[in-house]
Amino acid sequence: MLRTVRVLVTAVLLLLPALVTVPATATPAELVPSWTPPLSTRGRYLVDANGNRFRLKSGNWHGASGTWNGSGDQNDNANHHAGENSNRMPLGLDRASMADIVAGFAELGLNSIRLPFSNELIHDTTPVPAADVAANPALAGKTPLQVYDVVVQQLTAAGFAVILNNHTNTTRWCCGLDGNERWNASQSAETWESDWLFMVNRYKTNPRVVGADLYNEVRRDLLDDPNWGLGDQHDWFAASQRLGDRILTEANPNLLIVVEGINWTGIPADGLPHDRPTLTPTRHLSHTLVASGKLVYSAHFYDYTGPRHSGATGTGETHDPRYRDLSPEELISELNRQAFFVTGEEGHFTAPLWISEFGIGGREETGEKQRAWFERFVDHLIRTDADFAYWPLVGWHENRTGNGWALLAWDSAGQRIGLYDGDDWRASAWTRLLNAPSKTGQVEPATVWKMLSPDHGDFVQSLRMRNAGDWDSGARKAACPDGLRLVGLSHTGNRGLCRSGGPIWSGAYEVVKDERHVSPDWASGYTKVQCAPNFYLIGYSVRGARVSSALCAGTSQSVSSTGRTVWFDRGDNRGGGGGDFAHGHYKGQCADDEYVAGIAFTTRVGSSGTPDALYCRKLDA
């Protein structure tokens, strides 16, 4: 039986008011609400296997990604962040039993844990000394990865969902010019991908390992910025898109794929361009995974950073406002612009938003601006019903003083102080966050919009068509995820828009490259590729900018054989939602109750064969 945690009954009654009475020796499995894996998405919400809303109420148990500051003896605690040496493992295992730590997480009202790791940890074969796991002697002699295994097992056995987080490449503290700026900053992209496949396969049989947070706080290194869509080795959009698809197709189709926005670009100096893009690029270029119900977007916010402030003091500090300097109205506006729009608006970018890091100092934080920011940020999490993960959960203290950010802290004698000991100003805000009204129960299926972006190569998101092989050799191909249909194209730029609903694909498909099925002549004088009767568009291919083929899926349902022409060669002509899927280009889109049956284009002098018109037909005959 777990040892009694101080004020457990009081904390549980505060955090979990639905429970009338709780034994003082209640176990985590009795405190963590039940849920059924795997998790998936329905519009802006996460749901469990029964379709019930699962709001990530998470915390970060850091340490396995490293706490060393990067200089000096790694065995000297003074050379680790805040003097807290994790010894390459989740912090605190030298001071408290794993059972007590996990019990503390349940006491805080959490249902999920973000568990950072480094790539270096995966390959570290150095045994853990007994002193580093003094409170957990059974771990002595294991490698750091084997300790990580036990942590995952203990968390999931207690009922928690676990999200694996590739926090750093090297086992050291994040985040500066430290060799961890990008997924491929101090290692190859190939190593990053293979390490992820290894980790996913390692925990594949544990259904409560629910997610893969692909990389933490992608940012500029000394010379180069990350980007979102340029197609080069610094393209975070392309790298995360590729790895997300590989995880779902080669390792575990049940995992959530968590993609953080870009944390920093530019040189943080007054007068030079610099910015914190976060998730703003997704408005114009969003991910479309092979499984459309697995994408989660993520962002981090702290009071000491800002929309254009790096968070530094001294070198790297600019005169831009920090988030704590903003008025309540300005803060809400910036948060919505940078991240919260992905849950607040419907479009191709819509997804659950997980604020996977936010936090602040506790007992020793006396700054009025800092405290006000935390209260306002909690208000916005409540207002938007967003998923969240506090940073960090575990810390050190001596005589009730120390770093102070953690919600739970242990001293060298194993004595714990916690959020609900009566002297931590954050307790009321935390209780308010956990107990605030929130969407619960069944979540109805939502309209799914997804964009196709064959900007730099194939973008075939249909598993059926991936298995079909190269259906238009030499062309760049794009196809909607299975279950979605093509509803829009851009005049230039090669982008497409997919939508859920409509005909059910019978399994038959045809690649149409000529006018064999054209009837009637719905775009006189133009070249047309058209689907056969009872077929509808799910994809297309291009050679350069020119239309090469239409990918048509068959259905046994009765659909209309008459239609209308939607021209978009001289301006937008859109009949539905989904957002701006081809920013800066003319777009054509069929209405929500129509399907696309054909594409028209011309190669006459002055034209390059780009889409000019769509042939739209009603879904019902």
TrEMBL record:
Keywords: Glycosidase, Hydrolase, Signal
A biological process term (GO) from this entry: polysaccharide catabolic process
InterPro entries hit by this protein: GH, Glyco_hydro_5, Glyco_hydro_5_CS
Region of interest: Disordered: 65-89
Domain of life the protein comes from: Bacteria
Gene Ontology molecular function: any one: hydrolase activity, hydrolyzing O-glycosyl compounds
Pfam families, A to Z: Cellulase
Domain Glycoside hydrolase family per the UniProt entry, residue ranges: 95-391
SUPFAM superfamilies, alphabetized: (Trans)glycosidases
Signal peptide: 1-26
Regions of compositional bias (Polar residues) in chain numbering: 66-77
PANTHER family from the UniProt entry: CELLULASE FAMILY PROTEIN (AFU_ORTHOLOGUE AFUA_5G14560)
Family, similarity comment: Belongs to the glycosyl hydrolase 5 (cellulase A) family.
Official protein name in the record: Glycoside hydrolase family 5 domain-containing protein
Organism name: Kribbella shirazensis
